[in-house]
Amino acid sequence: MQHASSKTKLGLKVNAGQFWLLVLINGFVGAMVGLERSVIPTFAETVFGISGHTALLSFIVAFGLAKSIANMLMGRLTGRFTRKQLLLIGWLFALPVPWLLVYAGNWGWVILANLLLGINQGMAWSATVVMKIDLVGEKNRGLAMGINEFAGYLAVGLVSFLAGYMAATSGHVTYAFLPGIGFSVAGVLLTIFFVRDTRAHVQTETAQTTIPLLGNIWKDTTWRHANLGSVTLSGFVNNMNDGILWGLLPLLLTAKGYSLTQTGLLAGIYPAVWGLGQLVTGRLGDILCKKQLLSMGMLLQGLSIALLLFADVYVVLVAALVILGAGTALVYPNFLAVVAENTHPSQRPQSLGIFRFWRDFGYVAGAVAAGVFSDLFGIGAVLLGTAALTIGAGVLSEIRMCCTRKLLWHSQECASAGLLGGA
Known about the structure:
- Residues 1-5 and 406-413 have low confidence and may be disordered.
- By secondary structure, the protein is an all-alpha fold.
- The protein is built from 18 helices and no strands.
- 80% of the residues lie in helices and 0% in strands.
């Protein structure tokens, strides 16, 4: 094994074949969740007579809980299984999902499908993230994560549109789930026959790294480590505000007098900018200090959420949604890159799994907040509270974090703090 690892090279260019294969596979992972994103409320109302609001809340909670737990389990299981095996296990959980949705006899079938889908997303998406980080090494880690998240969320958007189109043109909303059969089978077959495990790459990086081992992976990732704890909190708040906007943005736009078509177009601006922007912002993280990108991204998100509430002019609304998408794009790939560069290669899957557990648990918190607090206090109060929490997370990142790269600012502070390996 030592001989094999000594010949294994890290880098995006030298591992291009496997890297782009994993990008394609992550596109299929995103496509699986895209099947539901646009049609679940209609599916719930037309087939089961359940209100769209209740359906959205139960879908996000079931999906978010399953995905969060699967993220954490994937990290723990890397000691027992290879990355490739875990990716395959994630895809096996996806196989029943489209069949359960197509033949659903009651809403319980849909909840079960979303639990399985959450496990698929947590296991398979996490596995592709960890394997890409293994392949590229330190130099282009931000770019790799930008490409990964762009591919996943582009697939979510495109398949969401495809599912809506199929449901509308066929007159049968269940037809929208049929492409999922092809996506899940393709994911399984590509993983079995073409993906190669990245264990040798991990051995190569382990031999080169100067990053110290974390004393307690759970405590350090959750709050104790200055960089990891800050990123975990920001990740939780980021997905919490996304969960809240997922539920409340259409209601807010409708209350402002916009039609269903206009609401659909406006609601699509934010994820589109978020998805496309990551191609740029991931690369920026390899050049600039990630601390500034993260704090700036969270501040932009918070300000734009507040602006959404008070904006009545169409152009101002569009600008707020573009800024919100840009702020999210600044943080999303760099969350993962910061976790990767602050953890030893042997502990990285566990640390990433814990981070992704808390980040995706934010969806559960956001769904509950959107459903409960909007009824108690109104949409406006919920959005203002969300904006304040998001800005607070950005300010905390600016105060607490320091740069891991040898830049002009904070490099001495990081080294003297003794918090970051190789700072």
